[in-house]
Amino acid sequence: MAYELYYWDGLQGRGEFVRLALEEAQAPYVDIAREPGGSARMLEIMDGDGEPCPPFAPPFLKHGDLIVPHVANILLYLGPKLHLAPKDDARFLVHGVQLTIADLVTEVHDTHHPLSTGQYYEEQKEAAKVRATAFIDERLPKFMRYFERVLEQNPHGGRHLVGDALTYADLSMFQVIDGLHYAFPRATKRFGEHYPRLAALCDAVAARPNIAAYLASERRGGHNESCIFRHYPELDKTVR
Amino acid sequence: MAYELYYWDGLQGRGEFVRLALEEAQAPYVDIAREPGGSARMLEIMDGDGEPCPPFAPPFLKHGDLIVPHVANILLYLGPKLHLAPKDDARFLVHGVQLTIADLVTEVHDTHHPLSTGQYYEEQKEAAKVRATAFIDERLPKFMRYFERVLEQNPHGGRHLVGDALTYADLSMFQVIDGLHYAFPRATKRFGEHYPRLAALCDAVAARPNIAAYLASERRGGHNESCIFRHYPELDKTVR
């Protein structure tokens, strides 16, 4: 039974964290929004009155009758099935890292939308500049130093965030860093010097055969300014 | 073996979602920050170089050698042990609701800190007024209509968010609404008229013997302006 991924069309967005896991595992899935009538089906599930516990927002995963909302929750569900998470209590560590990544993603989003999600970026540019500066100066190094330390303190060596094998959190870490490079090329120019373990993890993920094939395929959409990771040069700044 | 809850002292904050679950289940737990030297022990775990996969931020739960970070993850771990979550796939629905609650909590926090967590509220009051207005006008009704609809569409009746029995998500829903009443008394004045099922859920949770005893105890700290739910009258507004 194929997994059905429901997410907005034309965006990497939060859906991309799920796609990377499905692609790495070569799991059968349908990206519903890319099917004819797919976006309408997504809204039907969200807004219809027939669904017990409808999702608040995309992405969500449908597998049989079960509908699982939220990236971290979807990966929690998929993790053991796709062999991308441990089955013992270490799964709570992987999930914890994923939730920290989710918090970082929200903070990246808020660099261009600090005041209201209902307004365009252009309507909140001044506030965005303040928030993006605080993000680059304080929050980004706080998160990245933390993730670098997680790799450093992994008793199995620094090749993975948790344990001695690839997990969905490693794939998501790649996606966040890739997005940060797109959105903030000046702030991340010396990323590899500042965070060598994270940079090596990213390279290792990108070089995995299934991920490399996916990244080169048409299924991998590009970054753009309708998404979470947006390149607005005026929000970027050099980091020494 | 008692659960150890690590969180900042003197705050309900995110720790309170965990406390409510532990109190409802009458589970043995130690609120570490309230013990002598507790805060130092918390920082040791977070900042020490000996911990595999240290937590990024409080709250976290220590149970034996396992350290579980993030409210939703802690409740995921505790849920089946405390009989506050189903053991079948419906656990992903409960976790999904909890993650939507977590997103709401972040948005509440950002009403008073829209630009930078490193600055005081007083340094970002103007932006806070814009964000709080958008929150009250757009985001709060979007979230609350959604949660009301989750109750309405529960095929087991509208007494619980998921299924036919109390879960940790019901307890967390109570906590959010309680906090919103404190932070935004004018915006929530007609809460019971607008969201009758949610109001009834809150009353039912508050009336549960273990929760009622907890709320009346010294263990329940008050709301205050160092926390997520802050009462700044200038950010509040009447909702018709």
From TrEMBL, chains A, B:
Pfam families: GST_C_3
InterPro entries assigned: Glutathione-S-Trfase_C-like, Glutathione-S-Trfase_C_sf, Glutathione_S-Trfase_N, GST_C, GST_superfamily, Thioredoxin-like_sf
Gene Ontology biological process terms from the UniProt entry: glutathione metabolic process
Record PROSITE patterns: GST_CTER, GST_NTER
Organism: Trinickia terrae
Signal peptide, first to last residue: none
Any one GO molecular function term: glutathione transferase activity
Occurrences of domain GST N-terminal (ranges): 1-86
Protein name per the record: Glutathione S-transferase
